[in-house]
Amino acid sequence: MSPSIKSEANFFVAPNDVGNKEVTWRKGEKGLWKFYSVGDVFKNGASFNKQTGVGGAKPNYNQEQNFKVVNAGSVKKLTSESGVLLCSRSLIC
Question: Which SUPFAM superfamilies match (predicted)?
Answer without folding.
Answer: Pectin lyase-like
